[in-house]
Amino acid sequence: MKRILIIGNWKMNLNIHESSLLVKRLSDRIPIHRSVEVVLAPSLLALQPLSREIDRRKFKLAAQNAYYRDEGAYTGEVSFTMLRGIADYVLIGHSERRIYFNEGLDLICNKVEAAIRNDITPVLCIGETKQEREGGETKRVIHDQLTTALANLTAEEIDQVVVAYEPVWAISTFGGDSPAKPDDISTAVSWIRSIIEELYGKQLAKDLRVIYGASVAPEFVSNILGLEGVDGLLPGAASLNYATFSAIVDAAYRMLHTNPKSLK
Ligand code: PGA
Question: Which of 18, 48, 80, 196 could form a disulfide with 114 if both were Cys (CB 3.0 to 4.6 A apart)?
Fold first, then answer.
């Protein structure tokens, strides 16, 4: 059975104390769900203390970034190796990292490989900018970002990757105030699966977990998760508010149990 995956990306918000408080509030509101996997992505600094505080039956943790070398003279970096046993997931290729920190396709490819090598599930974020969308380049961007990032993995390793489709123009950071239209999401997700199918076969394309992120809010959850091939959500701003984030989890749970298609 596929579980719905919901990852709250806290970005560079909340210190250790505030992070701990948010987890406590979420824990009071979110019950243990077998069908919804809830992942929190706090700052790197808060990851370790939270890893000791969270109820692992309710929450898993994701790092927002890491460096691909295991150790060495890379001042200021934290490696995937150091995150072993602390983070279950790691976001890779988020548009803020691509745009603000100039992360290119090669670096992202190395990071995906390092995550797999260290038994941490990579959440590969891909998506087109407003300019690329307007220039009719969405399909090419998705293709390039996906294929280059996965280039060093075997088919079995690709099976462990989560792909997050995050159209940059719809992310709150870049001015988005509502999610992409269902048609846009469906089209992008089917492109992602068909690229995987072409390269690695039908089964892998079917099994791959593909989630959607960008301006996710509780009122959009059932529409997005009701789309064919969408296995979860990656809210950013909405994950910082305990009432809103728990409403997203609750809406996903209710949607799942009223729409048996998604339980397949
Ligand atoms: P948003 O961010 O939900 O605030 O648009 C999503 C993301 O950047 O992952």
Answer: 80
